[in-house]
Amino acid sequence: MEGKERIALVTDSTCDLDPAVINQHGIHVLPLKIVYRDRVYRDRVDITPEEVYARLEEEVPTTSTPSPQEAIDLLTELRNEGFTRVLAIHISSGLSGTWNAVNLAAREVANLKTAVIDSKSLSMGLGFVVEQAARWIEERTDFATLVKRCEEMVERSKAFYVLKTLEYLRRGGRINTVAAAVGGVATLVGNVRAMHPCQTWS
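The structure assignment produced for this chain is given below.
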């Protein structure tokens, strides 16, 4: 590793990593937004997943990406803290605009080399890549090798999801009524990579 190379690891709140793991490895998390009729919350900062689940019968929220300015602010803060490199690994670009927002932000922050990786996944499909990247950083892996290893891990990884009901996807606008009726079996199993790009996290 270059003598002056200091690497920060960034991900987003969809990674579903335990807070203890995030704190242990010093991972920086950019929160997505949870949008209700009367208020917008920062995911896992202003509202917990448990609170979202508890309110589902009352209201199904939508989601929104972090703004490019929020990403710029985070990258600027990391640069000011003395980091020279940033590895940012985010939720699939087919599911959210987060990757794009961070990619745009990276171009605006001078004197900081940033690699933004599309995990092509979400939840622990993303989280496992981030956690492994944290271990490689702690082993003092150089930045170029780190980026290559993470990209290779993404290509080798597949994530599957299981939904007990399609009702909340329908109510949240992720699928239409016809799709919900056709797919209205107790369990739906599918490959995250196969999801239609229009069925996105905004």
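Interim note for the steering committee: Residues 185-202 have pLDDT under 50 and may be disordered. The radius of gyration is 18 Å.
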